[in-house]
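Hi all, long-time lurker, first post. I run a small reading group and we've been trying to get comfortable going from sequence to structure in the token notation. Rather than ask abstract questions, I figured I'd post a concrete chain and ask someone more experienced to write out its structure so we can walk through it together at our next meeting. Sequence below, copied exactly:
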Amino acid sequence: MAQAIVQVDAFTAEPFRGNPAAVCLLDSPRDDGWMQAVAKEMNLSETAFLLPESDGYRLRWFTPEVEVDLCGHATLASAHVLREEGLLAPGTQAKFHTRSGLLTAKSQDDRIELDFPAEPAARAEPPAALLAGLRLRAGPKHVARNRFDYLVELDTAEAVRQLSPDFALLREVEARGIIVCAASDSPDYDFVSRFFGPAVGVDEDPVTGSAHCCLGPYWGERLGKGRLTGFQASARGGVVGIELREARILLSGQAVTVLRGELLH
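-- Answer (accepted) --
Happy to help. Here is the structure in token form:
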């Protein structure tokens, strides 16, 4: 039976910017092998699978290589598709049951707001492969780690933009990914970041919503702010709004549909 699939650029208002995600609207459960094969076929950083349940949707995320526990941009894309399909009215809340518990999304004007768990990082000793793989020109200001990723702060935003990592070395780092960040050199943003996840099949993720669950608490404490705006300085670029709420974090952004189709197998 054919399954509808939609490709959405998330955390952007412009097509071919932000982070592309595929969203597959399931009408019945499918096995893990099929979902992983579809994600590999789509070859995007994440493909989301939505299955209706009595009080919301079961939501799962797959990279081309593995299933992941938390993904922001594909959740934003999923809420965007529900809104466009008339399944999420403005101001109403979508409920997603995931491997990271209940996540919600609310459509507000031209933006979507996600309610995610905060994932603060604690200071950590960097493994040799991390520093060697980033090929830093100067030592990091700070290295920390949460349950998913390493966070590395550099001296300048320009240093973040100029990074050219050795992905083979970064693949040896035992973490989902590596977040690299610095204070912004633009008044439009509080910080800039990039995200590298070769261990899960994504060398560089264009805009990583879940990384901001770590970046938000980190920069909120550094800057003494409860509301922040982050810019992910990948080649595509994307903007993430952040509001800190104790153990939770509100992430907000825009999205645009670029492709609709059907999976025939």
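A couple of things your group might point at:
Residues 189 and 229 are 5 Å apart (CA to CA).
The radius of gyration is 18 Å.
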